[in-house]
Design a protein that fits this description.
heterodimer; A: mainly alpha; ABC transporter involved in vitamin B12 uptake, BtuC; two-stranded antiparallel sheet; 13 helices; 2 strands; B: mainly alpha; about 65% helix
Amino acid sequence: MVRSLTRTAGLIGRARREYAGQVEKAGTVGLWLLIGLLVVYGIVDARQYLVTGIIVGSIISLGALGITLIFGILKFAHFAHGDLMMFGAYVALGAFVGGGSIGPLSFGWGMIFAILVSMAALGAGSVLIDRVVYRPLRQRRSGTVVLAIASLGVAIVLRAIMLLWWGPDQQLYVAGIHPARDFPFDIKLKPDQIFIVATAFFLMALVYLLLFRTKMGKAMRAMSDNADLARVTGIDTDQVVMWTWIIGGALAAVAGVLLGIQSNLKADLGFTLLLPLFAGAILGGLGSPQGALVGAMIVGISQEVFVGIDLPFPPFGAPGYKPAVAFGILILILLVRPRGLFGKT
Amino acid sequence: MARDRLLTLLAVSIITVGIVGISANDSETFGGFISFLTVFVTTVAIFAVFALGLNVQWGYTGIFNFGVVAFFMVGAYTSALVTKAPSSSEFVRYVGGLDLAEGLGPLNLEGLTGFVLGALAAAVASGVVAFLIAIPALRLREDYLAIATIGIAEVLRRIAIEEEGLVNGTRGLTGIPRPLHDLVSPPDYKYIYFGIAIVVLVIIFVAIERAARSPWGRVLKAIREDELATAASGKNILAFRMQAFVLGAMIMGVGGAVYAANQGSIVPDTFSHFFGTFIIWAMLMVGGSGSNRGAILGAYVVWGFWTLTGLIQPHLPTALEARTSYIRDLLIGLLIVVVLLLRPHGLMGEERRVSLFAGQEDKQKEPLAGAPATGSAED
């Protein structure tokens, strides 16, 4: 049986090589068409789901951005990123002291302070983890796979610390019911959700400025393109690596807090988060920051809109199948265009 | 080497002395003590099967599977569905129910035939899932397969929960047939199953050992070390990687079947990332990837550590007792990181001897008749 399986795999592989160009072109067009169709359907018939998708998508974007930056600079898949996000959410919970509310939001300046504390803590924490775990492995010239396994270990440790400190039960930043308000086009939104999207887009703009308008950003992009070339041109690659972790960690912190505001905090959610995060980053093209934003947004929207489509067979209509939608996107992109929508060949 | 052996000896003896000592102290009767140790070793044997499967994928070929639990789960459910009788209640719904355990008449052999067929079905089902997931992901960078396997694990668990008619949803399957259960009284059944688990482990161990020392096994190692050079010497990399991935998944499927019959019941929550994937990676890393003995040793040491901390728990002050389970999660994670940093080859390390025929040249000057291309020619 193994032999016949192998032969089938070989045949598929050969067919793929022969028609690689056409498959990719057709696949890319098909993919964009699908995405367009989904968005149009969302606008016409599932606006509420589309809007929820944008909220979820902007949260995933911040995580996927970190994953793609780390992948671009250090060339390994950071499997602790989901747990890093949840850790950020819990650090903010620890630093959150309440303190009134800003306008219609359910929280006040205390939350802004908590977010800043969490960003600083995770930025510094990520650099520390890199110094203790990942850098020694890099210096030993371990393969990227070994780094990825090390990140699995880090993920387990982070998860255990969360469980130890904050316990396994769900937690909320602010208890109580926060009613949604009516907006035009039959959309209901909580003020908190507008805060989520605004914060996410503000941070994306900030990262854009950093990457494309500062010297460090230029160095980061250079190192992402070709690390050896960057080193011989005199770029301080250690510095670049440090800043990558600071940015990745801080973004993960905010993403975690926003996720906590949107739903709730749960310590063992981190590993499950990896699926939409990576689906988004890979859909956009691993290593491409713009790609991560677009890809994650598409994953977020698809997850919600698919649930909104009322068809009697999976994955439609069942919220439990949200991960399946992200998984479907992942498999589709791996089949037709593994470098992602915006990735370089 | 001497230091390696000392460390191994130290780890194994601490675990053994700890478990034997504390369980002897805590058990009220001698029978209870023996029964505890039997259950412990049975569990180690089942985990060792998973670790061996992962060793074929990661240790030998460098394939990166973060969704071990997916194949574990497929194996467990498949074997349960083919050995169980069809549902007799409208509140318990599942597909299959081929009743292989008791429906074969004179071929039943006390459920043993059904168990073997269930394990084979489990292997096939896990292999098919592995094959399907490998089509898009295996030819790409290793990380993509890792993410795809995390994905399939998550999706399969969701399907088991959402599609209530498939495997009875969150209530799970109970009364999974256990081979030879009519031979002894239920409390003594664990001794029978201990034997079954050990036999399965030994069969798989011997088979993989032989495969690893064959030309096929050497190609896998060559791929792991240098894919380009292996491709240049005319080996079809994708085919070999596919074979190793599917074979590893099939072994995990068998492990799932053995697990299901041991437990007697399974629910979707049984198949968590932690117990299904993380702890098995820890076992392989601790034992030494690339070594089958290492995989088994790792299963013993890590599960021994797990059991030992469980035994110590009631003796701890209350404040610490409640958190013990999280502390051991933490230590499992740390174990992976520390092993990678300080002892990348684990306790055992990979054996240098890679051929069934290596070493025979010393014994006989003439090369073996009919086997001119032994050892070095293949490497």
